[in-house]
Amino acid sequence: MMQYMETELARAEMEECIQNCEECHRVCTDTLTYSLQMSGNHMEPDHLRLLHDCIQMCRTSADFMHRGSPFHGLTCGLCAIICEHCMEDCLRVDEDDPQMRACAHVCRRCTESCRQMASIAAG
To answer: How confident is the model at residue 3, as a pLDDT?
Structure first.
C-alpha cells in the first residue's frame, strides 16, 4: 500500500511539474516576443538567448516527463538551473515591467518544481 501511495504522489508531482514547464514555455515565448518589440536591456543578446534556452529546456523537460523517460530527472535538473537564471535575468532587465515580473514568477515556480522532480528522480 505504501508503494502505491508513493507512486501516486510521484505521478501527481510529475504532472504538476509538466504543467509548470508548459506554462513557463508559454510565458517565456510571450516574453521573447515582447522583448523583441522593446528596446534597451530587453534587446540584449544574452537576455534573448537565455529566454530561448528556457523555452527549449522547458519543452524538452515536459516532453521527457510525458514520455516517462528514465532521463527526466536530468532534464529537470538542467531546466531548474536555466529557469533560475532566466528568472534573475528578467528581473535584472526591468523588475518594474509587468511582463518581466510575470516571466520571473513562472520561472521561479518552474525552478522549484523541476528541482523537486530532479530530487525525486535521483532517489
So the answer is: 41
Which residue has cell 504532472? Answer: 15
Instruction: Determine the Cα–Cα distance for residues 41 and 25; give it in Å rounded to an integer.
Output: 21
DSSP labels for 100-122? HHHHHHHHHHHHHHHHHHHHHHH
For 97: left if phi > 0, alpha if psi spans -120 to 50, otherwise beta; the answer is beta
d(CA 11, CA 5): 10
Cα–Cα distance between 19 and 11 in angstroms, integer? 12
Q: What does the pLDDT look like over 62-118, one tens digit per residue?
A: 999 999 999 999 999 999 999 999 999 999 999 999 999 999 999 999 999 999 999
CA torsion, ordered 96, 43, 81, 102, to nearest 10 deg: 30
